[in-house]
Structure formats: C-alpha cells, structure tokens
Here is the input.
Amino acid sequence: DADVTQTPRNRITKTGKRIMLECSQTKGHDRMYWYRQDPGLGLRLIYYSFDVKDINKGEISDGYSVSRQAQAKFSLSLESAIPNQTALYFCATTSGANTGELFFGEGSRLTVL
Amino acid sequence: GENVEQHPSTLSVQEGDSAVIKCTYSDSASNYFPWYKQELGKGPQLIIDIRSNVGEKKDQRIAVTLNKTAKHFSLHITETQPEDSAVYFCAARPNFGNEKLTFGTGTRLTIIP
Here is the structure.
C-alpha cells in the first residue's frame, strides 16, 4: 500500500460546486502539504500543516481551504470551484523542518467545467 | 522570494547517452537543492539532493553539481535507460523549512531507444 494516499484520483465537476480532496498517510509524520501542479509552472504550495492544530497558507491559498482531521489526514476543499482550478493536486508529507525528503501521493486530477 | 529557473523544458536523448538539466536560483540564503523525478501517473519522488557545503554528489548513474557563487546547480544522468524517461524537477530552499521549497518548472526527459 502507498504511504500517501489521495482520493479521488480523478474528478470532473462543474463551476460553483464544492469539492473535497482527501489525503491520508501512514508514515507517522506530523508535517503535511498540499501542492498544485500546472503544465509549465511546476509545483506550487497551497497550504501546509505542522500538526493538527497548526494550519498555514502557502503561496496560492486563495479559493482553497484545508482541514487537518488527524495526524494522518489532511483534506483540501474548493468551496466554489472555478475552471482555472483545473489542475493536478498533490499531497505530501515529511518528518521535520530540516528533513530533506517530501513523500508525495500519486495525485488527484481535477477538471472544473 | 526565491525564484528557480529550469532548462530545458524538454530533452530527448539517445539511450546510452548522457542528459544534463540545469537550474538557477536567486536567493543566496538557499542551502538545500533536491531533485525530484515524476513518472507518468505518479507523484514526484526524490532521487538526489545536495547541500551547500559540497559541490558534487553522485549516486550510481546520477550526479548533481552545485556552484553557489553562480547560483546554479545541475543534474547529470549518464548511460541513460528507457526507465529514465520522466519529468524532473529541481528545487531550492534555505536550511530549514520545506514550506519554503521552491520548485523549478520541470524538464520532460525522453530516452529514445
């Protein structure tokens, strides 16, 4: 089983709908992240969380919200989806501030029509 | 903030030849430089990283070089194989804080059999 699991893997929705992308990890790490990937733009940080009580905005948080339900679970919500939120979304986790490696999920591809 | 530029955006090489991907960064406070490989349908995976106290690091067929004075670092893959076909991302951040990690825009590497 994957260390970082994202659901759904693919989703097509309409403008204005509320969407939730879920992430769970079995690595036992405290730090979790949500990234967005667009062609030609690389990976950009949306939100991050250092523990259940700690949520922080990243570079591109407008239009998104998150919830850290438990150490292992971190969900991303789009309250009212718009077409320019069509992208590939990745959840990631790491163990510490200076630890090098980010462990990514396999991604959730979201299409907003 | 940090700006990471990555070139080329696409690269095709004959199997067995070498591939080089180059990145430049802008923030002299950056001290940690990872490279991630993203295979089709998967999340990015760390393949090699380097910290600013060394100029080169090797791991079998892959190597990374760092020139702090010029603010650039490169990924070198020798004896390329079909399984090296993927998108590669460079990134940079200060010593602490993966939330400060800035990614390059990615290079799609295709190995021609």
Observations:
- Chain A has a mean pLDDT of 94.
